[in-house]
């Protein structure tokens, strides 16, 4: 980014200027950062060793769980990519950008999108992971999302040409929907969501459509908490307990368990204080019955995460998931400092800024040892993507859906008129992003091989 642009950055976001004037300001940025420059990927000469970055991001995690982390990452270049957000964040900081910052997902890959129920019980499609959310250059989310489709496509043995088309469709869909959002008022953008059933209906594969409609019908039919209660608990006297399934779900043992449960009561009370008054009233009817450590995802393995079981006086359950909140991998690579000293609050507020509707029990808390957490429902009618059954057309449709959801999320905290003016109506931006995605997927393959070599040499532990 040039000094000239840095000096004029504040002028771009002028709430008084017309949409047409803001669109023109976006167009003018092309002279400073041409759209074709987004295709560039050349690793810096002083690029940090990706294995060293992984080791750094493991500091402070539960050491006994690190072998699970690396074992999961070694399954494929795609699994590695999902756990290596810190590596790509460092690389993206070296790529050209327009200087336009907005709220980012930060770990924007295709498995961090899906369907879920809003508090009003409507099923929507949206981004669903915000552990790394932070303000930064809007291009970073687009590049990570598009690249994830190339890497996932290769994992499914699609050709490079087809994978490149997936990435192109991410950027093209982002462009088209950002243009649509640029015609709306700020309030209309805030109200906008993507109806999951309508999205599925747009697909052309009748077999997949039938499969997906059955999934959302099933998701909408049952109470997630009651189903999880029957599956995940057993009765110990008069008390319900979460079943152990080591090493993925387990209780601390002996005196440690008693201590942690005592601490959990305090942490739970602090969490309640972050909720609105009506949610406090609702959860006041439930008491904390049990808590267990639960290994989640790929990137979160080793952080302190788990599930807590709340029960009402009449025996109705609620499962909450708590996740340790660490610094965003983006923070070290942007000039802006976080406005939140509490990492759990950073995640919750970022999620509320980007999602069309957030979990009704979303809140944050902390212990007395400097660890931050955020809390949400364990599952609430979630519909995750099933990549294993997707054919070329299904992946293409899914790429378009993710590009759309990302545009909607970015339009909430960015200026869609400026962004649309910069991207324009031609294919130049999508072409550049698709080329970048192929190049960075190759980089990811190389980094994955370096991780495998480190595991072979015993530098990174794996499960037996």
Walk me through the structure.
By secondary structure, this protein is an alpha+beta fold. It has helices at 3-12, 19-29, 50-58, 66-73, 77-82, 85-92, 138-155, 160-182, 186-191, 196-201, 206-221, 224-232, 254-272, 277-283, 343-354, 392-413, 416-423, 428-456, and strands at 101-104, 113-117, 123-127, 134-137, 233-236, 239-242, 249-250, 286-294, 305-312, 317-325, 363-366, 372-377. It has 2 domains: 3-219 and 388-456, no CATH class; 223-377, no CATH class. It is built from 18 helices and 12 strands. The strands form 4 sheets. Strands 7-8-9-10-12-11 form a 6-stranded antiparallel β-sheet, sandwiched between helices. Strands 1-4 form a two-stranded antiparallel sheet. Helix 2 (19-29) packs across helix 17, helix 7 (138-155) crosses helix 18 (428-456) and helix 8 (160-182) packs across helix 17 (416-423). The longest helix is centred in the C-terminal third of the chain and has 29 residues, at 428-456. The chain is globular and about 70 Å long. This is DUF2252 domain-containing protein.
